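Marked as duplicate of an earlier ticket. Keeping the data here for the record.
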Amino acid sequence: MSALALQDCDVFYGKAQALHHVSIDVAAGEVVSLIGRNGAGKSTLLKAAIGLNAVHSGRRLIGDRDVTALKPHQLGRLGLAFVPENRRIFPNLTVEENLKIATVMGRKGPWSLQRIYQLFPRLQERAAQGGDTLSGGEQQMLAVGRGLLTNPEVLLLDEPTEGLAPLIVDQLIESMRVINAEGIAMLLVEQNLKVPLKLARRQFVIDNGRVVWSGTTAELQADRARIESLISV
């Protein structure tokens, strides 16, 4: 049974169709990646999964429950957490205040403020600083930490390593391995193959709003030249 699934989903922006009969699933505790070029529909799909984009037809499922009609805050209470591409840090709040906001979700679980500081020691060092004083990498740590404090079952990450220095990318990869080892499933959106190949068990490729390829990481490696042609700008 999938922790999260979209089945034959269509999504529109006005009259323009953005997703066409898209199906994707994430099992409990699994890391799945969604890869595609800019404008392929990756962020649209994540927003459909978390309820920010309405599903015109098809179904959104958590386990065997149809949650197509639920709003984002309701999906959050059922165990979905979204880390958006633009991070959405509150600039006028401190790092600690940004983190504590997530605890209003009220879900019980192992993730606490102290555990976030253990995972990202840099955030504890910056706890009293404003969100707008952080580097890009620190803001990404803060966005991930905020998502974890909702104690999710599935973490949806939209381009978490985009624009970051290679050293910070490596640190985030290791952090995501720790998070996954705690049993949290992930749906990871990336354009660069480096991160998905290190983290994900299965891969989906999206282009022009359609899933055009899916398979295991080993199958992607065997077909890598074609996959790279599909995701190249």
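See parent ticket for discussion. The two ends are 35 Å apart (CA to CA).
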